[in-house]
Amino acid sequence: MKLNKLTTWIFIALVLGIVVGYLCNTLAPDAGAAKEIAGYFTALTDIFLRLVKMIIAPLVFATLVAGIASLGDSKAVGRITLKAMGWFVTASFVSLALGLFWANVLQPGHSMQLALPDAGAATHLKTASLNFKDFIVNVFPKSIFEAMSGNAVLQIVVFSLFFGFALSSLKDATGKAMICTIDELVHVMIKITDYVMLFAPIGVFAAVAAAITVQGLGVLSTYAALIGSFYLGLASLWLVLVGVGYVVLKKRVFTLLGLVKEPTLIAFSTASSEAAYPKTMEQLEKFGVKDEVTGFVLPMGYAFNLDGSMIYQAFAIMFIAQVYGIEMSFFTQLTMLLVLMVSSKGMAGVSRASLVVVAATLPMFGLPEAGLLLIMGIDVFLDMGRTATNVIGNSLATAAIAKWEGKLGPTVVDADDAETEHAAGDVIALPEALVAKVPVAEGARG
Questions:
Q1: Whole-prediction pTM value?
Q2: Does residue 245 contact residue 239 with C-beta atoms inside 8 Å?
Q3: CB 75 within 8 A of CB 250
Q4: Is 114 helix (H, G, I), strand (E, B) or coil?
Q5: How far lies 439's CA from each of 226, 283, 436, in Å?
Q6: Alpha-carbon distance 308 to 389, whole Å?
Q7: Structural domain span for residue 283
Q8: What does the pLDDT look like over 243-257, one tens digit per residue?
Q9: According to DSSP H, which parts of 70-131 are helical?
Q10: pLDDT at 68 over 90
Q11: Residue 121 above 50 pLDDT?
Q12: Which candidate, 371, 216, 402, 181, places its Cα nearest to that of 298?
């Protein structure tokens, strides 16, 4: 398992930011001087934020269009798609709702109370007057170029939906060529995103140094509250997901959890869903899910069913609002939930995708974009938990849909594991000598 170099540099930047910020806070003669010093650090954060905003529009467009154009049109695919999307939308709503619930109950950012920038304060006044009619009207773009230039994510999503469905309806050579082009554009944008994220350690260092220069080391206690609160929210989400899985799969849900333990640990330790993807497919195959279901639903889940990422996005945005003392009404939070339901789709495979979504959503609700850098220093701890949750959520979704479609065979486990698995039912234990020859039980392949 290779070391995540970006994570290492972010850790280093976090520590350096704490040390440098503490020295600046200690050596600054007064609060005014500390703010002036922090201003130089802020310049670096502004550069990084501009780079992040630069990639949002083309990234959302490319990933959504490519995902829509890749869908098939047979009845079976359509039926599975409807069931999968029903699960994904419901799970996303529950995840976001839990994130908002725990953020409101625990108030992890309330103790920090940073000063609100002037530009952010002006935007906040506009947010306060937001109403449902204006929200609905503003979802639809009058110009895609205007939407992209202003990073109006929802408007970009609407245009991408039209473009993707139109492109998938073209069956000639031109349509196929355009789909290939969009697919390549996705790869290009992911690579650009990787390049931009190389500047993340600089942004983290500057953000942490600026905050501690002004606030002192006492600001770190808020991060401990944020991490603890977030993992409490994740625990509640796991209970909900496993509970629903039990309703569909009965006792076999515990067999599934045992099988996906390894890919979940891989995802947690690397903070990468992609690193766990091959092992997740293998374990679902052992569980008895037929190949055609795993091969179709699991990739869709990686694009549309990021439960851990959804709860994180709601939590992060509410944390930033609390840090700056911005009150968000129930209607504003409900609107934000609907925005995140749509804007976060199609971002699979993108480095730090949740941060990109949060960065795109903050200005829509009058929240200071600089707040994003406050959580980047500890984002690796949050990323580990949300990535592991994504693996669990997608595994449960794939197995449940296979069960509904009648494409779930008996579980196959190695002989060494049979003793611990047989109590869950529907288990076939094979001798070790036969496991290599018969990797999946009869009926588990398409």
A1: 0.63
A2: no
A3: no
A4: coil
A5: 43, 11, 6
A6: 5
A7: 17-435
A8: 999 999 999 999 999
A9: 75-106, 118-128
A10: no
A11: no
A12: 402
The number of domains in the chain is: 1
pLDDT in tens, 13-45: 888 988 998 899 888 888 788 888 888 888 887
Taking 70 as the threshold, does the pLDDT of residue 55 lie above it?
Answer: yes
pLDDT digits (tens, 9 = 90+) for 95-109: 999 999 999 998 888
Length of the chain: 446
Residue found under tokens 């899985």? 245
Per the CB < 8 A criterion, the answer to whether 391 and 276 are in contact is: yes
Question: Which residues, other chains included, contact 81 with Cβ-Cβ below 8 Å and sequence gap of 6+?
Answer: 71, 300
At 49, is the secondary structure helix, strand, or coil? helix
CATH number for the domain harbouring residue 394: 1.10.3860
Q: Which amino acid is it at 317?
A: I
Alpha helices in 140-172 (DSSP H): 144-149, 153-169
Measured between alpha carbons, how far is 358 from 246 in angstroms, rounded to an integer? 32
Angle, in degrees to the nearest 10, between helices 273-287 and 261-270: 180
Query: Which residues share a beta bridge with 408?
Result: 289
Q: What is the pLDDT of residue 130?
A: 40
**Which run of H or E residues covers position 411?**
strand 411-414
Q: Is residue 352 part of a domain?
A: yes
For residue 446, being part of any structural domain is answered with: no
Give me the mean pLDDT over the 108-113 stretch.
Answer: 76
- Cβ pair 200, 11 in contact under 8 A: no
Provide mean pLDDT across the span 64-90.
73
Query: Could you identify the residue written with the tokens 């930047």?
Result: 13
Q: Is residue 139 part of a domain?
A: yes
